[in-house]
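Reopening this ticket.

The earlier resolution said the output was attached, but the attachment link was broken on my side. Pasting everything inline this time so it's all in one place.
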Amino acid sequence: MAYFDTAIIYLDSWGLTDAILPFILIFTVLFAILMKVEIFTEKKDGKPVASRRYNSIIALAIALLVVIPHVTRSYAADADPITIINTFLPGAVVITVVLLLFLMISGFVGGGTEAKNSGLVALAGILALLALGFVFWKALYPYTGPTWLYWLDDWQLQSVVVAILLMGLVVWYIVKDDTPEKKPTSMPEVLKEWFK
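Inline output:
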């Protein structure tokens, strides 16, 4: 195990987390987006397809434009995109894993299609998006926000809070009354149902 630790420390001293991994991440995401959007196309068999050549060069140039100033310390300390990415990703990964586990549990308990169509999954998605937005905001502006939320700066506590909320939603979904009700058809009826 000591050899593995030494190898990771050695790779990190060569810039693994500072340059290599952020470059790979930025290049891959930009290349995938450019291939999907198909701004630059070539003709193949008479059909326009996304140009791998142009998209790879553009993604390479943009990734290098982001990573090189970070390595040369040209960015201001609070505006470095690589630092923001390295701050944001751990919290985002924790929230994503918790959401994935929640969806797996609700799929097992809810019987497949019923769970997918329930409002619980939509609520979990909305809560996850809000949590990801909060994590991203704190990565961009770490010293902003209400002072009474200082305890949310701890990543471990954030993951525990999200896990408890999602477990509570799963418990609610399991124990709720399953008797069929008359579904509201108009927006006023839906709002009346929500605020009963």
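Reporter confirms the inline version is readable. The CA atoms of residues 94 and 159 lie 6 Å apart. The helical segments are 2-13, 16-37, 52-71, 81-110, 113-116, 119-140, 155-175, 187-194.
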